[in-house]
C-alpha cells in the first residue's frame, strides 16, 4: 500500500464531493463551496491518496486577523474504510507544515462538541479549546473552537 499527500486540483472536485457526503450529513460543504475553495488562492487544499485513490482531504484557509495571519481548518475528511490508520493526522501535519513555511504561527478551527473522533485527533495534535459557540450547527448543537500555536 502506497500512501501520499498532494495538493488538491480542480479535477479532484467530484471525489471531494463524494467523500464530504460520506463524512457529513447536514453540515456537508456543497459542491459549489468545495469548488470555490479549490479555485481560491486563499485556501490550502490537500488530498490523501492510497495507491493513487483519493481517500481523504483537508481544506483550510489563510486569514488576516489584524496584524497577524492565521490558518483556519474548514474540513478534514477521511473515508470510513480508511479511518484509524493515521491518515487524518498526516493530512493535518502537512497542512500545518505549509502554514509554517508561509510564516503562519496560529491555526484554529470549529468542531462539534460531540465529535469525539475529531476532538481526540485535534487534542493529540496539540489543539486546545478556547471558546464555545452556542447553537453553531443547529439549536442545542454547540461548536468548540480549538487553537494551536505553531512552532517555526
Ligand atoms: C476525524 C477523522 C478525520 C479522523 O481521521 P483518521 O484518519 O481516522 O484519524 P487518525 O487515524 O489520524 O487518528 C488520530 C487520532 O485521532 C483519534 N481518533 C481517531 N478516530 C477516533 C475514533 N473513532 N474514536 C476515538 N478517537 C479517535 C485517536 O486519538 C487517534 O490516535 P490513535 O490512533 O493513536 O488512538 C475521521 O474520523 C473523519 O473523517 N470523520 C468524519 C469527518 C469529521 O468529523 N471531520 C472533522 C471535522 S472538524
Q: Structural class from helices and strands?
A: alpha+beta
Largest sheet: 7 strands, mixed
The CATH homology group name: Gcn5-related N-acetyltransferase (GNAT)
Task: Let me know the average pLDDT.
Answer: 96
Distance between the termini: 32 Å
Q: What's the count of strands?
A: 7
Low-confidence stretches: none
Strand order of the largest sheet: 1-2-3-4-5-7-6
What is the correct CATH architecture? 3-Layer(aba) Sandwich
**CATH top level assignment:** Alpha Beta
Short descriptors:
binds coenzyme A, 29% helix, alpha+beta, Aminopeptidase, globular
Question: Describe it for me?
Answer:
The structure is a single chain. The mean pLDDT is 96. Strand 2 (43-50) and strand 3 form a beta hairpin. The chain has one domain (3-149): 3-Layer(aba) Sandwich (Aminopeptidase). With 152 residues, it is an alpha+beta fold. The protein has a seven-stranded mixed sheet, with helices on both faces. It has four helices and seven strands; from the N terminus they run βααβββαβαββ. 29% of the residues lie in helices and 42% in strands. The N and C termini lie far apart (32 Å). The chain binds coenzyme A. Coenzyme A (COA) binds at residues 23, 75-78, 83-89, 111, 115-118, 120-121, 124.
Amino acid at each position: 500500500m502506497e500512501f501520499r499527500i498532494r495538493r488538491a486540483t480542480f479535477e479532484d472536485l467530484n471525489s471531494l464531493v463524494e467523500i464530504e457526503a460520506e463524512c457529513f450529513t447536514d453540515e456537508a460543504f456543497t459542491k459549489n463551496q468545495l469548488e470555490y475553495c479549490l479555485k481560491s488562492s486563499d485556501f490550502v487544499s490537500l488530498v490523501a491518496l492510497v495507491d493513487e485513490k483519493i481517500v481523504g482531504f483537508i481544506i483550510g484557509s489563510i486569514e488576516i486577523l489584524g496584524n497577524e495571519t492565521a490558518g483556519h481548518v474548514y474540513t478534514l475528511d477521511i473515508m470510513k474504510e480508511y479511518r484509524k490508520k493515521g491518515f487524518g493526522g498526516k493530512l493535518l501535519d502537512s497542512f500545518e507544515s505549509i502554514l509554517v513555511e508561509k510564516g503562519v504561527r496560529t491555526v484554529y478551527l470549529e468542531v462539534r462538541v460531540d465529535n469525539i473522533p475529531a476532538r481526540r485527533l485535534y487534542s493529540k495534535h496539540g489543539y486546545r479549546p478556547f471558546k464555545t459557540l452556542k447553537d453553531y450547527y443547529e439549536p442545542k448543537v454547540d461548536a468548540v473552537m480549538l487553537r494551536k500555536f505553531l512552532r517555526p
